[in-house]
Amino acid sequence: MMNDPWGKLLETAKKVHLANSKLQDFCPFPKDIKKQEFEPYHIPASDLMQNETGLLTRDYAELRDAFISASPYAHWRQTYKGTIIGERFLNEFGCYGLIGPESPFQSEKIRAWVVYMPKKFYYPWHHHPAEEMYLCLAGEAVFRRENCPDVRLSSGGIMEHSANQPHSMETVEHPIMAYVVWRSEFGTKPVLTFKAVSYTHLRAHETGRNLVCRLL
Ligand code: FE
Fold first, then answer.
1. CA–centroid distance, residue 145 to ligand 1 (Å)
2. pTM of the predicted model, to two decimals?
3. What residues sit around ligand 1, an ion, with C-beta below 5 angstroms?
4. Does residue 38 register a pLDDT over 60?
């Protein structure tokens, strides 16, 4: 194993987190962090992220590269395994923890992880009781939240999701990498907001209003 990618990654994430007033106001970077053991778990998204060339960034090259360097040693999550989400999503949606379960560090105060999506990728509507904040490190995506206008975020952009507020995300001509934190309700994992319909059906409704899905 290469020389402790986790120590470097934690230090870099901490520097970014402490320097960002929105992240700090949302959840101060914790002081109770402990190292922990975990088993790595590989999925194809890890290779995609390591070979990605489209993660353009303004201020976050160091953190982007630290997340990429640690990729081979991470436990990549499959949060939506066993749902209607589909094979491409399970293989290509990238997410691994920095602070939390199956991650190199733990804290009682926050969860923190990286999210990566290739270009032309759709993350359907989902929700969770945890309050969440995204910092876009590199690339860009369209973020959607219930009862809010769509927002296109690129490097440095911030998005907040309140408890159980449905949200979705879509990349078009660029991939995205984001640093994501939760500050509450860690025990309940995300669920898809519309379970009674197919992935294709969910996607079809993304371009219009969500009313039809919502009634199913
Ligand atoms: Fe979320």
1. 10
2. 0.91
3. 132
4. yes
